[in-house]
Write a structure and sequence with these properties.
mainly beta; Maltoporin, Chain A; 22-stranded antiparallel beta barrel; six-stranded mixed beta sheet; cell outer membrane; TonB-dependent receptor; receptor; Beta-barrel_TonB
């Protein structure tokens, strides 16, 4: 981080020293160098930094120059974002920062498999369309317990970061595990600065929908002391705290179902039509708190030995509260209201109409369509602790020994609790004309205002308790060649890890309170909200929905007091419902526990070479190979169906009692991962890179789960089994392997000016995807859905990037600058089957792309930095991509449509130490649009249309920020 104190015109000469300092924190990734020269460079850099007479460059220019130097001087293809100013990554979360890098995209959903719940800050990080991204902290493994192998980057406070590096085609000395790429988060070290450093940030943020002000702050202290007899010491402490409150409004269509019955065909002159079940509307209030602590000690007792220790603790607390009204009838039972017909477009797709339903409704009368209202409250806390200690010893002028040990522990506990009520909305009019957001109305409109028209229907709880722990040990030996025209240095290393993972989950425990088939002693057989727990029933009005641009009916819903008090909810709900109805399930049985262990032993060797004259132009590079052995063990259970309460034969009741059976597994495999990196320097500013490597990604722990749940589906009168099914993990999965090639042409025409283009290709084998196959247990065939190594996939594409400040312009115009990048990704293979959502039958012939892959994505950032002012406008866009092959709600392939968002910031430097500014997100009021389809049917027909499932809008967010550095 010597760039903090270096004038711009000296930065090019110090680039190599900067690279060494940045990579000294990066574990296996550290670049070797001659020990004597390295020490000399460190001493010279520190001396120069203390005696600067020039102007210190900070802000956006310094950060861009630092990131450019890292990319330019790296031994492999890498992209970086740095924060020269303390707490000043360009965006307020690590995920938002990463999406500015070419080839990197993020999901805007809490989970890709549940696209009914968007995320304001973004969640999953993908590199070149692949989710298999490995996270590092200072070059060492790091993970989140709730994310399996990966790191939930949104968990990590951005204020603690000195920079973020993305490796897309790693060399042999980078730890294995990411066929998509590796993201290394760098924190600061005390020897990065020449002396004392104090930094403070403070801010307050608010969203225009949530209208809740939340604080953020961070503080850093770093210093180094030279003693007379014990060498030099350094210490650093960094703490960050931030809160965020956001609101998301969403409106949805239920799946469009192929219909040929007379009721819906009336008046259409069509033979086949496609009718949705209804529409849903929901508001989600999201809150999160991030607390981060980082500390480091460094000791250099003499010129040949350096010792260090680092610790980081991230505490991420999240909660969200959803109010929703959603269709809860049978799609095939929807018909036009008496005396009306549905309107269709020429293709037979529903446009508008008055809906009614002929579903059975017990003692209730009327022609309404059934809807549920819910109040859903979810909370989660994830704590990740990382502690590591390292040493570096110069054995001689030619040999360096280094090593470290690391301990990582992550825990995540969550509770998800929902209370449902239900009603039958009469006079329901749905208008889907022209593909616009649904228009919904109820007639009479005051029907929704009477709590007697609603009844307490059900409740559902879900618990998770996940724990992961890893111990890792590494030892490296570097040998530097002297007076050799080609060989520079070589490096060997060994690494061993032990990982334990325990995942506990109760599943989603749904249970009835009252319903048409679960009646109590009341006139309707139901617990209506006017007479049963009336104090816990509240009118929810969906105020300012879509900023007032979409009108939806208000509904009665369970109160926040009830939904947020899981411990007492059972007593209240049990007192009004059927005796055998919902009861909490917060005990982890054998079927809920997934215990796994994993051991790895790895070794690598890499040779660095280079020559300035032999080929007519300077050329350098490295060639190496990494070998890793992995052994896994998983212990769990399978469970048969429980038919003891069903109306089936006594023989089946006796045979299927929900009994458990042991179901364990594991794997043992070796991977050889070679790599090659070449760089040709045509001029001092123009260079060409070639990279080839083999990478691997181990299956996620949830995919390796040994639990097998077997189920039996009964007919309408509960007397016979119509289908035997199952769901399971696969502890025998093999890792996904990719052979990958990159070539990049890079032109660095100014200290903050560059232009590059990269071509890439990945050939993936043993691709993991989920399929349904027939398996036999105790003589009975089951359709079991589990992950398999299903074949191959190919990814190819290109990246182009450009960055420049227009210093050649006169006066204040020289403060203008631009950053832009574009990525094109094409894929073949992966998952290419779908499921009929109504019969659970696998349908072949439906080609689906790799999930998460946008064919086109780009960033365009306008910058201005002159005098005390610094301004930034950043536009990020990505094209449509597949979220999941089977959405949790619709069971259809679900897509995120093209999405673009505009963010910005403006800062004013009060003096050389202090600045104040405003950071802004979602200035364009971006709309997230979710699509569903194609729809496959058991008879082999396929509706290839992509229907709009959802529209979502979130807050425009604003944060007033103050920063100070001394």
């Amino acid at each position: 981080m010597a760039l903090l104190y270096t004038p711009l015109n000296a930065r090019a000469q110090q680039a190599a020293a900067t690279q060494d300092q940045a990579q000294s924190q990066s574990g296996d990734q550290a670049k070797p160098a001659d020990a004597k020269n390295k020490k000399k460079a460190e001493d010279t850099s520190a001396k120069d930094a203390k005696n600067l007479d020039g102007i210190t460059v900070t802000g956006v220019r310094a950060s861009l120059a630092s990131a450019q130097d890292l990319k330019r001087n790296a031994d492999q293809i890498v992209d970086s974002v740095t924060a020269v100013d303390i707490g000043a990554l360009p965006d307020r979360s690590v995920t938002e920062t990463l999406q500015r890098i070419s080839g990197v995209t993020v999901d805007h959903f809490i989970s890709p498999g549940d696209p009914d719940h968007p995320s304001a800050e973004g969640s999953g990080v993908l590199i070149r369309g692949l989710t298999q991204v490995r996270g590092e902290l200072n070059g060492r493994d790091v993970f989140s317990a709730n994310s399996g192998r990966g790191l939930s980057f949104e968990d990590v406070p951005a204020e603690l970061m000195a920079g973020v590096d993305v490796y897309k085609n790693p060399s042999a000395d980078i730890i294995e595990g990411g066929i998509g790429g590796t993201v290394n988060l760098r924190t600061r070290m005390p020897f990065d600065a020449p002396g004392q450093l104090i930094g403070f940030t403070g801010g307050i943020n608010e969203g225009d929908l949530s209208q809740k002000s939340k604080p953020s702050t961070s503080f850093l202290y770093s210093n180094r002391w030279q003693t007379e007899n014990h060498g030099e010491f350094g210490a650093l402490f960094d703490v960050a705290y931030s809160q965020l409150a956001t609101r998301t409004d969403g409106i949805q269509n239920e799946p469009f179902v192929k219909r040929t019955d007379a009721a819906v065909l009336a008046g259409s002159n069509l033979n086949t039509v496609y009718v949705p079940g209804g529409a849903d509307w929901r508001t989600l209030d999201f809150g999160r708190t991030r607390i981060g602590l980082s500390g480091a000690l460094q000791w250099r007792p003499n010129s040949d030995l350096e010792l260090s220790t680092q610790a980081l603790r991230s505490d991420y607390r999240m909660n969200w509260n959803e109010h929703a009204a959603f269709f809860n009838d049978t799609s095939n039972a929807i018909s036009p209201a008496t005396g009306t017909t549905f309107g269709y477009n020429p293709e037979g797709v529903f446009q508008n109409g008055w809906l009614t339903s002929d579903s059975w409704r017990g003692n209730l009368t009327g022609d309404g369509v059934r809807f549920n209202s819910d109040n859903r409250y979810a909370q989660q806390r994830t704590i990740t602790t990382d502690w590591s200690s390292a040493f570096k010893y110069n054995i001689s002028d030619q040999m360096i020994l280094s090593g470290d040990m690391q301990f990582v522990k992550s825990t995540s506990k969550s509770l998800d609790f929902t209370v449902f009520d239900a009603t039958y909305l009469p006079g329901l009019y749905l208008d889907d004309s022209n593909g616009a957001k649904p228009s919904i109305s109820v007639n009479p409109s005051n029907y929704v205002n009477n709590p007697a028209n609603y009844f307490w229907a059900a409740a559902m709880d879900h618990h998770e308790d996940q724990r992961g722990m890893e111990r890792a040990y590494r030892l490296d030996l570097e040998y530097n060649f002297e007076d050799n025209s080609w060989l520079k240095y070589m490096r060997f290393g060994v690494r061993t890890t032990n990982r334990d993972e325990t995942n506990k989950t109760t599943g989603y425990n749904w249970g009835v309170i009252t319903d048409n088939w679960a009646t109590i002693d009341s006139p309707s057989g139901l617990a209506d909200m006017a007479n049963y727990l009336p104090s816990q029933a509240v009118m929810y009005n969906f105020n300012n929905f879509f900023r007032g641009k979409v009108k939806v009916p208000s509904v009665y819903a369970p109160s926040d007091a009830l939904a947020m008090n899981y411990q007492e909810a059972y007593q209240l709900l049990h007192s009004i419902g059927v005796s055998w109805g919902w009861s909490p399930n917060d005990v982890y049985g054998p079927q809920n526990v997934n215990n796994q262990s994993e051991d790895t032993q790895g070794a690598y060797g890499i040779l660095y070479f280079g020559n300035d004259d032999a080929l007519g132009i300077p050329v350098d590079g490295n060639i190496g190979v990494r070998f890793v052995h992995t052994s896994t063990d998983a212990a769990g259970y399978g469970q048969y169906p429980n038919l003891t309460q069903a109306g089936v034969s006594d023989e089946l009741k006796a045979q299927y009692t929900g009994q458990y059976f042991a179901n364990s597994g594991g794997g043992d495999y070796n991977n050889v991962l070679p790599s090659l990196n070449l760089r040709f320097k045509f001029t001092d500013s123009l260079q060409w890179r070639i990279a080839a490597s083999k990478a691997m990604t181990r299956p996620d722990f949830n995919q390796l789960s040994p639990y097998l749940q077997l189920s039996a589906t009964l007919n309408a009168d509960n007397t016979a089994v119509t289908q035997w099914t199952g769901i399971a993990g696969n502890p025998n999965l093999k890792p996904m392997v990719a052979t990958q090639y990159d070539t990049a042409l890079e032109w660095y025409f100014a200290p903050t000016g560059s232009l590059y283009t990269t071509l890439f290709y990945k050939d993936i084998s043993d691709y993991i995807s989920t399929e349904t196959r027939t398996e036999t247990y105790s003589g009975q065939d089951y359709l079991v859905t589990r992950p398999y190594n299903n074949g191959t996939g190919k990814i190819k594409g290109a990246e182009v990037g450009y960055s420049q400040f227009f210093d050649f312009l006169p006066g204040w115009l020289k403060g203008l600058g631009v950053q832009a990048n574009y990525t094109y990704v094409d894929s073949q293979g992966g998952v290419n089957s779908a499921t009929d959502p109504y019969s659970a039958t696998t349908v072949t012939g439906v080609a689906l792309p790799l999930a998460g892959l946008s064919k086109n994505s780009y960033n365009f950032i306008g910058m201005y930095e002159y005098g005390p002012w610094s301004v930034r406008l950043a536009w990020n866009w990505r094209s449509r991509y597949l979220l999941t092959t089977s959405d949790a709600a619709t069971h259809l392939p679900t897509w995120s449509d093209s999405f673009g968002q505009l963010d910005g910031s403006i800062f004013y430097k009060i003096n050389k130490n202090m600045q104040v500014g405003l950071q802004m997100n979602n200035l364009n009021n971006a709309q997230t649009k979710v699509l569903m389809g194609p729809t496959s049917y058991a008879d082999g027909t396929v509706d290839t249309r992509l229907y709009t499932r959802s529209w979502f809008v979130a807050d425009r967010r604003y944060e007033l920020v103050f920063r100070a550095t001394f």
